[in-house]
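This protein record is not my work; I was only asked to verify it. Take the sequence as given and treat only the tokens as open to question. I have pasted the whole thing underneath without changing anything:
***
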Amino acid sequence: MYLYLFLSRSRTEIVFDFLNLPTDLHVTQGLINQQSKSHSLQLINSSDDIKVAESKINTMLDQDTSLVNLSHASLKSSLMCEIKSVINIVRQNNDLIVWGLSRSATALSQQLPFLLTL
């Protein structure tokens, strides 16, 4: 992620899923603070504290977005987002997406090879 932030200096916003693991948030913020002070973290809030709506992801992306960090399965509810439609939203904006799969890897171990082809 650091290399991508270094290479994308003109696009300075990182969109981050508020329901993602707190450690992921701390690591991302640490990278910004130590290495890439020009970037900023934009948190996608959840209206119900259960799931982040795809429409919110779409409204957060703009020409300044460089990276989107999302959790496939919500930490609080274990609900999973529609990975294919979210990838399409992020690709339309020409952004890179980083998926947190730690909570979904066990439940979806048979589907993970499919996810890598999207």
Q: What stands out?
A: The beta strands are 13-17, 40-44, 65-71, 96-100. The longest helix spans residues 22-35. The mean pLDDT is 81. The two ends are 19 Å apart (CA to CA).
